[in-house]
Amino acid sequence: MANERDTIRYAFADTRLGQILVATSALGLCRIHLPGDDPLGSLKQWASVHAPGAGFVRDPSAVREATQQIEAYARGQLTRFDLPLDLAGTPFQLRVWSALQEIPYGATRTYADVAAAIGEPRAMRAVGAANGRNPVPLVVPCHRVIARDGIGGFTGGLSNKEALLALENVPILA
Asked: Residues 102, 146: one domain?
């Protein structure tokens, strides 16, 4: 039987945030790369760990539903994604990413809130690290996690985090 990650299908989508890369395996959405350096290189680096030996096929039809939902989100017309996900990570990361999906549109939680939600109240830094390794930002809304005293970090860049929070009408902390 073939591995569900033998082939990674991807495409680029133009959004309000700029051009993003969207990738899927046979199991579901596995990678979103926000604007920045070398999105295809980032996808291949992710696959070297989670899908060794995978082939890559540029196939916009394979990611059409995901790109349509992302574009609707970027236009402010979608508040919750409904996509199959192929999240590859450690058990801890998977717990964090599951908790992130429970943060409602237009709301934020602190790293401490997420740590408490997964039953690890002292694991704030580990939550931050898991947040930074989220393979599908936007869909798993890591941008909704903020530091207790400010906006915190974001792999996609602070300007993108601020834009996403503004899109969701979340007041930006100074």
From this structure: yes
The one catalytic residue among 8, 130, 142, 151: 142
Q: In the annotation, is 30 catalytic?
A: no
DSSP string across the chain: ---TTSEEEEEEEEETTEEEEEEE-SSSEEEEE-SSS-HHHHHHHHHHHHSTT-EEEE-GGGGHHHHHHHHHHHTT--SS----B-----HHHHHHHHHHTTSPTT--EEHHHHHHHTT-TT-HHHHHHHHHT-SSTTTS-GGGEEBTTB----TT-HHHHHHHHHHTTPPPP-
Identify the residue with better confidence: 50 or 97.
Answer: 97
Q: Does residue 162 sit within a domain?
A: yes
Residues 102-143 have pLDDT tens digits of: 999 999 999 999 999 999 999 999 999 999 999 999 999 999
In-domain check, residue 82: no
Q: What is the pLDDT of residue 51?
A: 81
pTM, two decimals, is 0.90
**Domains in the chain: how many in total?**
2
Q: Which domain holds residue 162?
A: 91-167
Is residue 64 one of the residues assigned to a domain? yes
